[in-house]
Amino acid sequence: MSTMNSETPDQESNTTTTHSFDDSDTRADEMREQLETWVEYLADLTDGARASEQFRQWLDLQLSSTTTRRGTRCW
Predict the structure, then answer these.
(1) Contact status, residue 47 vs residue 39, Cβ threshold 8 Å
(2) For residue 42, which of 6, 25, 31, 69 sits 20 to 30 Å off, Cα-Cα?
(3) Inter-residue contact 74 to 67 (CB < 8 Å)
(4) Segment 5-19 mean pLDDT
(5) Is the CA virtual torsion 53, 11, 35, 7 positive or negative?
């Protein structure tokens, strides 16, 4: 048997998700499907963070701190 653990924050509280996979012919497919689900969840959280005003303010601050002495961006 194989077990995968992940911590997935929830808007109200932190939760831990545990999945067990039996040693069977479908184990690889079940693991792949679960990983795809977690990746989709992470992508959704990332999209939400990119859209947030707080992240945009933080990013603006980071970009302003990368200015070189000549006034051009380091990127």
Answers:
(1) no
(2) 25
(3) yes
(4) 58
(5) positive
